[in-house]
Structures are given as C-alpha cells and as structure tokens.
C-alpha cells in the first residue's frame, strides 16, 4: 500500500486527558499527531500553544507532531513550537507578510515546513513556493472547528495538486483536513491525498483501533480500484 499517514486532530480529543488520548490513538495505529493551534483572531476559536506541545513530549509522546498554525502573525511562534518538539509546522499564506521567509524560518528551526490553503484559496497561491514545501495542506472545511462536513469541491483541488506534484516529481506530502471519515477517506485517497487529518471521526468513536483499522482498509481498497 502507498505510504498513507493518518493524523488524528487533537481538536476532538478530551483536553483534560490529552496525553492519554494522544497515547491511546497512537497505540491504536495513528501515524502522526495533528496539533491544531488557533488564536481567536485568524480563526474564531482558541486552542493551545507550545507549552502543551512540550507537555506531550514530556508525557512521552515520541510520534511526529504536525503543528497546524491558524494564527496571525506566525513567525514569532515558530521557534517556541520547534523548541517544544514540533516536527512539522504548517501555516496559512494570508498569515505571513513574507511566505518565503516564514518557510525558511521553519526549516532553520529544524522542522519540516508546509503551507495550508483554505477551501476558497486557489492552488496558484502555493505555486511560487511549491519546491520548498514538505507538506501541502488543503483544507476541506473552513478552519476553526472540528465536526464540519467535507466540502466536496475540494476533490477537484486535490486532483490538481496531485497532478502538479507528480508533474514536478516532488515528494511533498499532500495533506487534507476536515470532515474526513470512513465514508469518504477512500475517495480522498483516490483523488491523490496521502496524509489524512481526522478529528471527530476518530476521537468520537468508541474504539480508536477499530476506526483506524477501518480507515486503513478503506485506503487499501482505494488503491486496488
Ligand atoms: O483544523 C481543523 C479545523 O480547523 C481540523 O483539524 C479539524 O479539527 C478536523 O476535525 P474533523 O473535521 O475531522 O472533525
């Protein structure tokens, strides 16, 4: 099977037991921890910062932590997140006055870097930076909240992004985030994504292991078609 990564979003975890929740979901077979950072300014919700990322490391979480910054401005929080144990840091181009500089800053801090495109943001916005991206994240909901429905028009954008990355022979991860569940993960994989962020579909399920296994079965099926 292709090297698909499933990344549970902490947004839907029980924050009172975050270390345990993240540990459980990794034991159940998740590949990456997706760490949603919101500032009640760039998006209308407020979550957590570098201290909580550091706490997860101190708790013993050694998986890849993928920090999705939904904050503006971004640069000043990049070194604190790198020091707190982030492996991947992604941000929205609208939140930086110099996207190339922010990407370089993330890499200087020893992290993988990525850009995030909202549903309404055209793929063209990523084009000038495409060679520098370790991750291209396409939002399939408007950022701010978990539990929203997947916007179906995102499938076209995923196909276009996949064609672009393949044409340029880039190893960039194509991540999709928002409304991913057992019913649509196969179609999203067929469109070309290889990294799947899912919050409510995993954390609201009774059995994380069963849900992750079913997601992997869907991904295997997507590949065989
Ligand atoms: O960044 C976001 C929302 O802003 C996402 O990571 C969601 O938290 C995904 O949650 P579900 O849509 O899977 O519930």
Automatic annotation (TrEMBL):
The active site is at 36 (proton acceptor), 177 (proton donor). One of its GO terms (cellular component) is cytoplasm. It is an enzyme of class 5 (isomerase). Its cofactor is Mn(2+); a divalent metal cation; Zn(2+); Co(2+). GO terms for biological process: pentose catabolic process; pentose-phosphate shunt. Its EC number is 5.1.3.1. The keyword NAD does not apply. A divalent metal cation binds at residues 34, 36, 68, 177. Keywords: Carbohydrate metabolism, Cobalt, Isomerase, Manganese, Metal-binding, Zinc. Catalyzes the reversible epimerization of D-ribulose 5-phosphate to D-xylulose 5-phosphate. Belongs to the ribulose-phosphate 3-epimerase family. NCBIfam families: PRK05581.1-4, rpe. This is Ribulose-phosphate 3-epimerase. It comes from Thalassotalea mangrovi. The gene is rpe.
């Amino acid at each position: 099977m292709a090297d698909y990564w499933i990344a549970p979003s902490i947004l839907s975890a029980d924050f009172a037991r975050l270390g345990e929740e993240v540990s459980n979901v990794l034991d159940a077979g998740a590949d990456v921890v997706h760490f949603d950072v919101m500032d009640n300014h760039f998006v209308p919700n407020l979550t957590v910062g570098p201290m909580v990322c550091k706490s997860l490391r101190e708790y013993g979480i050694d998986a890849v932590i993928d920090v999705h910054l939904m904050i503006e401005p971004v640069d000043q929080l990049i070194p604190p997140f790198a020091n707190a144990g982030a492996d991947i840091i992604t941000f929205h181009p609208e939140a930086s006055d110099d996207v190339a500089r922010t990407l370089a800053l993330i890499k200087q801090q020893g992290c993988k870097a990525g850009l995030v495109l909202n549903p309404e943001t055209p793929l063209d916005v990523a084009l000038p930076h495409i060679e520098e991206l370790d991750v291209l994240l396409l939002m399939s909901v408007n950022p701010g909240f978990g539990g929203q429905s997947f916007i179906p028009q995102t499938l076209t954008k995923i196909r276009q992004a996949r064609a672009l990355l393949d044409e340029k022979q880039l190893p960039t991860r194509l991540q999709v985030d928002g409304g991913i569940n057992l019913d649509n993960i196969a179609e999203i994989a067929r469109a070309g994504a290889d990294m799947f962020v899912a919050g409510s579909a995993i954390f609201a399920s009774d059995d994380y292991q069963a849900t992750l296994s079913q997601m992997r079965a869907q991904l295997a099926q997507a590949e065989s078609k």
